């Protein structure tokens, strides 16, 4: 048997570096799974001095949202350790991995009781913090004597820890902790959040809180409470949070706080994490109370500076906050659009997602063109898990702010080409509806979609729309004239080849084949020389294994057999005048055909006459034409009735008409008619 030795676990800092450097979630999961396996193995071994080290790494894994429950008993063991560094990690783990409902929490009650009587105030504070975080009412009652003794001691450090730990269970001790500022602020905050009836009472303390806060902001260096050049940032954050609660929906309290918030915002250094924490709490307070407009702009600018911070976490919380206020302070947030768009290039997936959501929220009628370019560029390289959200956001923005129908169509086609596999199901019918309403763009759209179909048939949504468009507007494609785009000469066989490629491709879904088959059938009324080929293509799928496709083919074959005599064959096309022949009906007593003349020019056609001649064996009756004038882009009709005969029907038609500057006279020989007609 071969035993593979597990590689020794890496240091915490190295593990964090590797995890944060992972480019994908799969790579991150792989690193964490390997590390968790190594941690499990070392937990099962005897104490080798690395238990606290391994638990610390497991807690980081837990912070990232991965399972870490197997470390609960290790927390209990470390709490009972006589070593301070192990005890500290054990208590931290208990606060993160345990709660009052778990049985393992009962096992640490005795350890907490012993540590509350410890000679070191730092060990006592560890026990108090854990008690405040996860202590149940039963646990606190068991430890009440120790807590009461600590409250009556002269140590202000311990009194502050007690005040923050057990206020919710022992309100009768408030008088003993009122002298500790930090603890008192925490207590008032919790009381106001849990009991709104106390708000009016504590709003009377707003002026005093403002003075205390100003003293902290403007005070000089104090080694006892200074953190990275910021005077007691923990107390500042607590006071700002309390002022936010007291100023919410209250103009008097808000007015009293406005000047202070401006002072904090302009005098706090954001280059250090402690300063950023104070500024972030300031921003939250500004946005939550009835603050002045200038102050709100200042708060947005602070968040804008956070976007330039090298720390991804700070950038993330900045965009999260901007997302909440973008609707109410749209113009202020809009000023930082460039920085927000740059965050789309961030390596961190969470930052990218927030930047995407914020960028979509910033789209407006003014910036739709420039911002959409950035979003489309992001779509071409965004992670797979963000593509669906990106395409959905782009579609919504384009539908709401599109400057023109052509721009709207181009944008959607670009998205389909780039990420067609990630669009919503309703995209195809929505785009078809858009194309239908854009009458003047039919020629442009069918040319563009035909080129896209020739280039790639793997994107199903794009292929479906292209097939539909070719079926509807194939005559415009074959005409080869398009003012909106460079004209391309496309033959009937080219179009049918493209549709047959879709029908035969293994990449085409049944739904896509249905679109292609229907488009092929529609073309039978829009082309002149390949009707038999279309009939052959359709008949093949009459025995298709796919029931839906088979049913369509059978129905289309029936149309060919029953109504083929109604199809027109073009007999004359010159100078913008087109003459079409169509069999209307056939009975035992005769057959009626209709000659339809259409004018595709911008000029009126006048003096139109049609004369017909047939062999002597056939009797012909011509009815009066609908008129001798065809308006620009209009049509006219002439009905002709033949008596039946067994010989093949042939007819010669003389066409005469006058345009604006010339007279035309032509003769057309018609040697073939729709087969069921004769």
From TrEMBL:
Membrane topology of this protein: Peripheral membrane protein
GO BP terms: intracellular protein transport; vesicle-mediated transport
Principal subcellular localization: membrane
Subcellular location: Cytoplasmic vesicle membrane; Endomembrane system; Golgi apparatus
Residue span, GAE domain: 564-674
GO CC field: AP-1 adaptor complex
Gene3D superfamilies in the record: 2.60.40.1230, Leucine-rich Repeat Variant
Key words, A-Z: Cytoplasmic vesicle, Golgi apparatus, Membrane, Protein transport, Transport
Annotated family: Belongs to the adaptor complexes large subunit family.
Name assigned to this protein: AP-1 complex subunit gamma
Gene giving rise to this polypeptide: ap1g2
